[in-house]
Design a protein that fits this description.
This protein is mainly alpha-helical. Helices cover 35% and strands 7% of the residues. The chain has 19 helices and 16 strands. Strands 1-2 form a two-stranded antiparallel ribbon. The protein has a two-stranded antiparallel sheet with strand order 3-4. The longest helix is centred in the first third of the chain and has 26 residues. The chain is globular.
């Protein structure tokens, strides 16, 4: 199916990358399973789009750009779909030490350069990401311009349309800002699209989310549309990046206590952790804002079903998936899930010294006994490891599902993978790489709670910070919610066992812990909890940079992990350079005025 705005692959950056003139725009609309999935109907002039129906079509196009997909396997501008994947598995997960690139040496080698912190401005991955976010921004600007010229809206309806468009624009700019830092601002009033990137845009991102928070209704009629509370959560997250902790608390408080999903349910942690990664339970009470997906709706490919993750499935002998053994969780990440058998708490400082046993160097035919020590159960809903049920596909066989164990380790990703029971409905095999019907949550309620915990700690409210962290940990400790993984899960015919698949133990922090241990300990515990809870969801690198600890944290990781695998040998994070990725060289070369580029390269990449 075509995206709502059908943009041709133009050669000049002023149209591809910055502001698309409204010209000929594809508009489509109909009542379907998802309002985001619509067939191409016609091309219309700007004047004809200045109707309520036309504006809604433009707005749907702005939502559609969240997936960053132009065609099967292809992102906007012609790059590969995974280069602009909205879950940032490369830029947030691999670069953050959650995962290895995966596959084998030489396959998608630019990701290796990113993983070892030697990226170059000419890497096409960065240009694809840049183009895709600016395509989304262009669609938002087109929506805002058309809406403000369209008669017949009530004040509330116009504010809703503009609030959604500005929320989405805030999202696209937030994505660019945390990746590249120095980016040009183009809005609906910009007439000269060649703009410099020398002005900080945090205040403008704030303004978009604040407008959305102030003007959007508490609920929307369609799942997937941004509401007041999604805007508040994103505004709070923006404040956290700016270290405006009081402002963040002021908005997180009502989001946590009053926020509602699109169906009017109050936000809450779902009892089953995995329900956040299950197509059958998406848009639940934990989903604050999610990219909507559908499987098996596009006969031309997997354009609507997590195309950006098509490489990231177990691959090899007897694997039920087509592709490709990328995005393999690191040994270091897995070790974080070890818990102290006496307390059920994590090893905040010496997790690698308490490593979880793995089958590195073993064939699937070799004998292997899983680790018998105590483990946080979230591990086995985050990482596929040998001898543990891999959803309902049976026990993970180890090496048979790994393309090159020596290159990138013994583990498989799991959060975005569909179940065997749902393979014909939730899985999508319409292309050489699989897709799924599992939404990608840009913000879920656990993320909000942990951000709020961080704000409270920074403000000195350590007990409140601990309360939020314990809400997340108590959900993980709840066996009645089947957060634990049971051995009979490997039997697709069903049945419930009382035998957990591993020695699961996770506990809340005892009363008064944060107050007695102080701010430094409390922040360390919060940071650690974010990694446990949000691992493999594309947040880690950006969190480390935001906290100002990326250099020591990632160099410690590289030193440890490079002794286990060969893919990141020689990697080193350089403080003052690697906090941000290079501005794509093609943009610098093309955005020229009076013979000189208006875009400045980030420090350390000249």
């Amino acid at each position: 199916m075509m995206n709502i705005l059908n943009i041709s692959n133009m050669k000049t950056s002023r149209y591809i990358i910055m502001l698309m003139t409204i010209g000929l725009v594809t508009i489509n609309y109909s009542c379907k399973k998802s309002y985001l999935v619509t067939p191409q109907i016609a091309t219309l002039s700007p004047e004809l789009l200045q109707t309520k129906t036309g504006v809604d079509g433009l707005l749907i196009g702005a939502y559609s750009a969240l997936r960053a997909i132009e065609a099967d396997g292809q992102a906007f501008g012609g790059g590969d779909s995974w280069q602009a994947s909205p879950d940032n598995w490369i830029y947030g997960g691999v670069a953050g030490g959650d995962a290895h690139k995966g596959s084998n040496s030489g396959d998608q080698d630019p990701i290796t350069s990113i993983a070892v912190f030697s990226p170059i401005p000419s890497d096409p991955f960065f240009n694809t990401k840049w183009i895709s976010d600016y395509e989304g921004i262009s669609r938002c600007n087109n929506t805002i311009r058309a809406a403000t010229k369209t008669p017949g809206y009530s004040a509330a309806d116009l504010a809703n349309i503009l609030g959604q468009a500005r929320f989405l624009r805030g999202h696209y700019y937030f994505d660019l800002k945390k990746m590249f830092n120095n980016v040009p601002w183009i809005d609906e009033n910009t007439t000269d699209v060649i703009q410099p990137n020398t002005t900080d845009i945090w205040s403008k991102i704030e303004a978009d989310f604040l407008y959305a928070y102030t003007n959007l209704p508490a609920t929307q009629s369609d799942a997937g549309r941004a509401n007041k509370w999604a805007a508040g959560a994103y505004l709070g997250k923006t404040y956290m990046y700016e270290k405006k902790y009081s402002d963040a608390k002021a908005v997180f408080d009502p989001v946590i206590t009053q926020g509602q999903t699109s169906n009017g349910l109050g936000y809450a942690l779902v009892p089953k952790f995995h329900d956040n990664f299950n197509a059958a339970t998406k848009n639940n009470s934990e989903s604050v804002f999610a990219i909507q997906t559908l499987a098996n709706v596009d006969p031309g490919g997997i354009t609507q079903s997590n195309d950006g993750d098509r490489l990231n499935y177990p691959y090899g002998a007897n694997s039920p998936f087509d592709c490709c053994s990328f995005y393999q969780p690191t040994v270091d990440l897995v070790n974080h899930y070890r818990t102290n058998p006496a307390t059920g708490l994590p090893y905040l400082d010496d997790y690698d010294a308490n490593a979880i046993k793995n089958d590195m160097g073993l064939l699937s035919s070799d004998n292997f006994t899983s680790d018998a020590g105590t483990i946080d159960p979230r591990l086995d809903w985050t990482v596929g490891r040998r001898g543990i049920p891999y959803l309902d596909w049976g026990l993970h066989p180890g090496n048979d599902w790994i393309r090159d164990q020596g290159f990138s380790g013994p583990y498989s990703p799991i959060k975005h993978v569909y179940t065997q029971a749902g393979q014909n409905t939730d899985g999508d095999q319409h292309s050489w790489g699989p897709g799924s019907d599992i939404n990608y949550c840009i913000i879920r309620f656990a993320d909000v709670l942990l951000l709020a915990a961080e704000a409270e700690a920074q403000l000195g409210n350590l007990q409140k910070a601990q309360d939020y962290v314990n809400m997340v940990r108590n959900r993980a400790a709840n066996p009645n919610g089947f957060v634990f993984k049971y051995l009979d899960d490997s039997n697709p015919t069903g049945g419930v066992s009382t035998t957990p698949a591993a020695n699961y133990l996770v506990s809340a922090y005892p009363p008064g812990t944060f107050n007695s241990q102080g701010l430094a300990y409390s922040l360390k515990a919060i940071y650690y909890e974010r990694q446990l809870e949000l691992a493999m969801e594309g947040h880690r690198f950006f969190d480390l940079v935001r906290w100002g600890i990326a250099g020591p944290a990632l160099n410690t990781f590289l030193q440890y992990e490079s002794k286990i695998t060969t893919d990141i040998n020689g990697g080193h994070f350089t403080v003052g350079r690697n906090e941000y990725f290079p501005i794509p060289q093609v943009q610098i070369d093309l955005e020229v005025k009076s013979g000189k580029s208006v875009l400045k390269q980030n420090p350390g990449y000249n």
